[in-house]
Amino acid sequence: MISYDFVTIFLCICVHPRGIMANENPYHSLFVFCFEDAQGLGFCGKLMRAVNKWADDSQLNLWLETSGARNVAIYERFGYKTMEQFTLKCKNDPEVHDEEFGMMRLARTPTE
Question: N or C: which end of the chain has fewer CB within 10 A?
């Protein structure tokens, strides 16, 4: 068993009062960060299952932005679908980030 003296995974959920489309449920942005040495230990899976259950119980849609095909594949396992792909270019950063993705998971009813 590995013990950590610091936070290994970070989660922030932000509430947006209106959905992306008219008459849609409010959605929540999900921000997840896991230190590299804690990856592959099951923290993300436990966290994502708990967050998805909370969102389903509350009938809330979830939105997240991520980068890279590896992360997309991880979130797809938890029911997220790619809604858009975009490029990030920051003013003081010479690197262009062209594998950025917006993903959404719609709330599920108890029968789904």
Answer: N
* Residues 6 or more apart whose Cβ sits within 8 Å of residue 84: 101, 102
pLDDT tens profile 70-99 = 889 999 999 999 998 988 787 887 777 778
Residue 18 has pLDDT above 60, yes or no: no
Is 26 within 8 Å of 18 (Cβ atoms)? yes
Which domains, from first to last, does the chain contain?
9-105 (3.40.630.30)
CA neighbours closer than 13 Å in the CB half-sphere of residue 11:
13
Name the residue among 112, 19, 30 with its Cα closest to residue 74.
30
Question: How many other CB atoms are found less than 10 A from the CB of residue 41?
Answer: 14
Is the pTM value of this prediction over 0.70? yes
Which amino acid is located at 97 in the chain?
A: H
Q: E strands along the chain, which residues?
A: 9-16, 27-34, 61-67, 81-89, 96-105
Tracing tokens 């792909």 back to the chain, one arrives at 85
